[in-house]
Amino acid sequence: MKDAFGLPQSLLVLGGTSEIALATARRLIARRTRTVWLAGRPSPALEEAAGQLRGLGADVHTVAFDALDPAAHEAVLGKVFAEGDVDMVLLAFGLLGDQARDEREPEAAVRVAQTNYTGAVSAGLVCARALQSQGHGSLVVMSSVAGERARRANFIYGSSKAGLDAFAQGLGDALHGTGVHVMVVRPGFVRTRMTAGLPEAPLATTPEAVAAAVELGLRRRSETVWVPGTLRVVMAALRHLPRSLFRRLPV
Fold this sequence. Notes:
The protein is of the alpha/beta class and 251 residues long. The protein has helices at 19-31, 44-54, 73-82, 99-104, 106-134, 155-175, 207-220, 231-239, 243-246, and strands at 10-14, 35-40, 59-64, 88-91, 137-142, 180-187, 224-227. Strands 3-2-1-4-5-6-7 form a seven-stranded parallel β-sheet, with helices on both faces. Helix 1 links the parallel strand 1 and strand 2. Keywords: Oxidoreductase.
């Protein structure tokens, strides 16, 4: 069960090698989280991540999970919930893709969309139903400011995050009053392996800063978290900028 400040004792991470997710897990373990499930494709990286968290004192399990295999989600994730209540699910898997390549190769673009949106819809609904059945818990969804308005430079990724964001908001409304809390996290450019080599955007942040924002959001039971918070104002302006002007921006 969560403590008085809304922090979980048990955590299920979908996207078990995500640097943001692992930074969040480390922060929560330092507070009170004791059981962690890392769900992802079996790999040495997943086992290494589990080992690092065990070194912090948590009881850590790995789960073979593939966002691109929605037919297996109910069975795979159902086994986790069958082990006991899960206080928090962190949906953190995603694929950035390569915009130039993906425009030339529609199959690659579809893979981005299926990972970031279709896979998240499937896993999100499975987890939401399980959380609702147990009567409590938080579903934290890693969205992105890229979903606020599609940019020429990454509209394939951005459109998939826009769909995810809208889905998560609607799911939060559907679960309101059930005891299940849905929180959408919208980071800007985060310095991770996924963004290595890309031009750094203004207001760039770190996995640790996102983790801190997630913890604060849990304590406040926020529905939307921006990282950094300044992006809320920036994106409000960009969202309403006339399209003819938006096209001219170097974004």
